[in-house]
Design goal:
The chain is α+β, with helices and mostly antiparallel strands. It has 24 helices and 29 strands. The two termini are 58 Å apart.
Length: 864
């Protein structure tokens, strides 16, 4: 009998453990689905931005169809992910998406040329006719230079971007990569990157691609001409990002097996630890694969090197810099060998006083049978100059001609073969010259502020500070420049009526920047503290092309006033477009959902793909607020209890990398075991000295028994239930039901600012509705002071901060943590409307216990 009882108990424990494990696994899956929504959102906004540009560009129609279809697929996946997060709550969105997608396809089918299958491989000599997006920047530039007789480009061919994508889509490879990369947004190691690359190295090429690749290479191999296999990414070698040294090149390929392996190796380098880290720090989507592969005839170089058409540190001098190494130029590019340096004038004259000839002991050379090998330089040649005056003159002419052709300074790779003929291997913008915006054409005082030009153009207007939605209600009656702490999507409604927009945070790819470009309204983001420094600036001129804000001159003000038109007299963006572009704009890029907390923010108001992107993002964040309720209620044993020095008790659910337990099983943990960046910042605010976490003097206005039965309108869980936080390395979701109200915080604090956000919600209270409303207004006032967009309705506060760097997110989370303690039972202290401003000022001034206010008022209880 005893054995039977023991067996029943063991079975019960096993079932309970299984339920806990399943619940935590499901919660982690929800979290990863949420992060996948954020990644999809970033890609979708990028696509909306590009489509908006094509709609306005002359001749941009040809690119619309593939871009629109790619966005249709991306948004469909977003809808699926949202319905997985909240089953059956957003099913109507599928029908809405189908309707919009069908309407887009109808317009594309009747008005644009039928899509043709793009080539998988193209000869370099004829590749200039192909869209640059199919070739990548490196190959596209070389293809155009083949038509210039003054430059000699090696023969070759390009595996196009569609060809490379076909490889990644073959046998579901891209899906596997997407899952791995999404997982790596939270935790990262070199081993994870190697796992990604091994998937690619071991994947078979689809037969059509393998055939096209080998057919293109066969003439080279037949005539014993080797190939250099190199990357050619659309984001590589550009004005903003060079990706220099991030991708692999494979040199001197001499047979078909080597070529197939080299192709895989170059594609795999797009997912190397180095490349993915570069993308993250540069603000680029790690899943946005945009690589073509360039195959050039191998130049068995006698000398090779780099040509800079300007000195990066002194571009105005006009000096040309040439570096040269013996053998293949890879040694100069990688910096693995000493190089001769030559300083040239624009006419080719050599500055011998600055030029340096070094001892060159090794050189990289082609190896028989394929590959390259280091070999010694003959002693008699080690100290000799590699280039003669006439040869340097050729490179100087190249420098001048290339810069004139490209309209910008160039960074060039070159090689000279055994016969003394020069070959141009690569030309890209000299990105080190790009850090500073171009100077204003006229001399004058320095700018009032500088940031990132997100929408070009120049406009003058009077500053209007925007801190909340109410500041956006009134239409401008004069030329107006909106100044806001973050990119408020709600401003999209008024955007066509303003002269310009200035944003402390934000980025060139967010929703508001998209709409600003669409309406040709200059917008500068990343200004830092413009909402403070420019609040009283009066009239300013926004130079969106250069990312600068200037004090407006009298002439600029007069011209702006004379040109200003009231809303009724203005032509809309759609009216200025041809009919097809008008219709596609309404279906794709138009943004109708702006008020995320208003009654019109629903599926029925989604009329464009941009609306669907906005809807899914907002609802996904809100879905995470209640994600852990069931897990916590049914499986309290599966979470960790945080030992706290203040009476704020919270259970921790680790969904990936948020705790440092060193392999141990711990029921109770100390705060130093939490390594979640956003939670640590929040906790720093919670334990701030001076917060009165104890009960207010005189007791609470209602009994604690009543509070345990209070519930919020979004969840059935009583307010008396324990607080919990879901954490990962860069994510935190806190649900705090304490006393008579609930507070929710959802935050992402990652390296890449685009997906970073803080979502804050506060509701409830134990006092009457008027006092609760005053507390809500007080909280909204405090959050607006710190740059949040706050929406206050009765006793409900919703506040957001988006697109900020990690350091700013941490700083604001400290403020939110302090609010958790500061606002406890504060509604009981809100005796009149005047208290709202006084209490908010006390918090902003650091008087968290309301000590000074108590001394002045006498009858106000601290935090009570």
């Amino acid at each position: 009998m005893l054995g039977l009882v023991k067996k029943i108990i063991e079975q019960h424990r096993a079932r309970r453990l299984l339920r806990r494990t399943e619940a935590i696994t499901l919660l982690k899956a929800r979290y990863h689905a949420f992060r996948a929504v954020l990644a999809s959102n970033a890609r979708a906004v990028d696509a909306v931005t590009e489509i908006a540009m094509r709609l306005h560009a002359v001749g941009g129609e040809a690119e619309l169809a593939p871009l629109a279809r790619r966005l249709i697929v991306e948004t469909r996946e977003m809808v699926e992910k949202l319905n997985w997060l909240e089953p059956d709550r957003h099913r109507l969105l599928f029908a809405t998406h189908r309707r919009i997608a069908s309407a887009i396809e109808d317009r594309l089918a009747t008005s644009l040329p039928a899509p043709v299958n793009p080539p998988l491989c193209v000869p370099l000599g004829s590749a200039a006719a192909a869209p640059a997006g199919q070739l990548g920047n490196k190959a596209s530039v070389l293809a155009r230079l083949t038509a210039r007789p003054e430059f000699r480009v090696p023969d070759g061919f390009v595996v196009t971007l569609p060809g490379c994508r076909l490889f990644l889509e073959h046998q579901g490879l891209s899906l596997g990569l997407a899952r791995l990369v999404t997982r790596l947004t939270e935790t990262w190691s070199a081993d994870d990157s190697r796992e990604l690359q091994e998937l690619i190295r071991n994947a078979p090429l689809p037969p059509p691609l393998a055939t096209a690749l080998l057919d293109a290479a066969r003439p080279f191999f037949k005539n014993n001409r080797g190939l250099a296999v190199r990357s050619s990414s659309a984001s590589e070698d550009g004005q903003l990002h060079s990706f220099a040294g991030q991708f692999t090149s494979v040199l001197n390929i001499t047979n078909e097996q080597q070529l197939l392996a080299a192709f895989r190796e170059v594609v795999a380098s797009s997912f190397s630890a180095r490349s993915l880290a570069y993308r993250r720090h540069a603000g680029l989507d790690p899943l946005a694969f945009d690589m073509a592969v360039l195959c050039l005839e191998m130049v068995a170089a006698r000398v090779a090197g780099i040509l800079l058409t300007r000195l990066p540190q002194d571009p105005d001098s006009g000096v040309i810099l040439v570096s040269a190494v013996p053998g293949l130029g890879e040694a100069a590019v990688s910096g693995s060998a000493a190089a001769d340096l030559y300083y040239l004038g624009r006419d080719g004259t050599v500055d011998h006083t600055r030029s340096v000839i070094v001892a060159k002991e090794q050189r990289l050379a082609c190896q028989k049978g394929g590959g390259v090998v280091w070999e010694p330089v003959p002693r008699a040649l080690q100290e000799q100059t590699l280039l003669q005056t006439a040869e340097l003159g050729t490179l100087a002419r190249w420098a001048v001609d290339l810069e004139e052709w490209a309209k910008t300074p160039q960074d060039v790779e070159w090689a000279m073969d055994q016969a003394g003929d020069f070959f141009l291997l690569q030309a890209r913008p000299l990105t080190t010259l790009q850090g500073q915006p171009p100077p204003r054409s006229s001399s004058g005082p320095p700018p009032l502020a500088s940031g990132i030009g997100a929408a070009g153009g120049r406009a003058t207007g009077r500053v209007r500070l925007v801190r909340n939605r109410q500041d956006l209600v009134a239409e401008p009656t004069e030329p107006t420049v909106l100044v806001m702490p973050q990119s408020f999507v709600d401003a999209a409604n008024i955007l066509p009526l303003v002269a310009g927009v200035l944003v402390d945070l934000g980025n060139p790819a967010d929703h508001l920047a998209c709409v600003a470009r669409e309406h040709a309204v200059p917008l500068i983001s990343g200004l830092g503290d413009a909402s403070r420094s420019l609040a009283d600036a009066g009239w300013v001129t926004v130079d969106g092309s250069h990312g600068q804000v200037h004090a407006a001159t009298e002439e600029e003000i007069a011209a702006a006033v004379a040109a200003w038109q009231p809303a009724a007299a203005r032509q809309t963006v759609a009216q200025a477009m041809p009919p097809l572009q008008q219709e596609l704009r309404e279906l794709i890029t138009a943004l109708n959902l702006t008020d995320a907390y208003g009654p019109t923010f629903n599926i029925l108001e989604c009329h464009s793909l941009h609306d669907i992107v906005r809807y899914v993002h907002e609802k996904a964040v809100l879905a995470m607020f209640n994600a852990g309720d069931v897990t916590l209620e049914e499986n309290l044993g599966a979470v960790h209890i945080l030992d706290a020095p203040v009476p704020f008790f919270v259970s921790i659910i680790d969904v990936g990398g948020g705790l440092a337990l060193e392999g141990r099983t711990m029921r109770r943990i100390s705060p130093d075991r939490v390594v979640s960046r956003p939670f640590c910042a929040l906790w720093q605010g919670i334990v701030t000295p001076g917060l009165a976490w104890g009960p207010p003097p005189g007791g609470s206005p209602m009994g604690s028994v009543v509070s345990s039965w209070l519930t919020d309108h979004k969840s059935s869980r009583p307010i008396g239930m324990p607080n919990y936080a879901m954490v990962s390395r860069d994510y935190c979701n806190l649900n705090a039901r304490m006393d008579f109200h609930f507070t929710m915080v959802d935050a992402v604090c990652a390296v890449e600012p685009r997906n970073n956000h803080i979502q804050f919600r506060f509701k409830g209270g134990g006092a009457n509705l008027v006092r609760r409303q005053r507390r809500a207004i007080c909280i909204g006032t405090i959050l607006e002071h710190y740059g949040f967009l706050a929406d206050v309705r009765d006793d409900l506060v919703n506040a957001t901060l988006q697109g900020a760097p990690a350091a700013v997110i941490e700083e604001k989370l400290v403020v939110v943590g302090r609010l958790l303690g500061f606002t406890r039972l504060l509604d009981a202290a809100m005796g009149d409307d005047g208290m709202v401003r006084q209490v908010a000022d006390a918090f902003i001034q650091g008087d968290y216990g309301l000590t000074n206010l108590v001394a002045a008022q006498g009858d106000v209880a601290p935090n009570g």
